[in-house]
Amino acid sequence: MTQAIRIAIVDDHPLFREGVARSLGEIGGFEVVGEGASAEDAERLVAAMRPDIVLLDISMPGGGLAAAANIMTGHPGQKIVMLTVSEANADVAQALNAGARGYVLKGVGSKALAEILSNVAAGESYVSPTLSARLLSDLLQPANRKAEPLQQLTGRETDILRLVAEGLSNKEVAARLTLQEKTVKHHMTRVLAKLNVRNRTEAALLMREARERAS
Fold first, then answer.
1. At 33, is the secondary structure helix, strand, or coil?
2. pLDDT tens-digit profile of 60-86?
3. What is the pTM of this model?
4. What interhelical angle do 39-49 and 64-74 show, nearest 10?
5. How many other C-beta atoms lie within 10 A of the C-beta of residue 135?
6. What residues contact residue 160 under an 8 Å CB cut-off, 6+ apart?
7. Which residues contact 210 (CB under 8 A, 6 or more apart)?
8. Residues 178, 164: Cα–Cα separation, whole Å
9. Is there a contact between 53 and 79 (Cβ–Cβ < 8 Å)?
């Protein structure tokens, strides 16, 4: 017998949470192990229940995007799927950069959601097709070309590069993120390759430029 996929649902609308939980229960193959209404709830549920997937809304107390980033810092292997009404490119990009495995709009049907969650549990990623196409189109616009390389980084790689851009050494980054120094070096090697730069100084410069454009 296939083991049920353990799900935590965090959304500040109780009726919506109940509807998702009921739909997944009726379809079968899922076990809802916890529910919450805030970023704080999300972090607590992940630490206590270790669900296979945590479903996060963006617009909730504490912010779903902040919760995703914090969860991935403390639990790098956690699978996160954003389930939201937000179609903003910036939200999609920030969620994926934070390490989310999926970005799903709330208009999705229950069977489609179940299939998406099953695929994510199996190691795949998912972004609603309309958002994926629009985000790609936006990244290909000339004004955004400089930002495109940074979109290739994982949430962990982005966290490390942010700290490097603040002037921290690999050893200091490792201490800040509770990682081994060799792990940080490995991530930085991948960052340099993805950004097509020669050294950490050039990589840090790209990150600083991106911050200045966003501010």
1. strand
2. 999 999 999 999 999 999 999 999 998
3. 0.63
4. 30
5. 20
6. 173, 177, 184, 187, 188, 191
7. 146, 147, 150
8. 15
9. yes
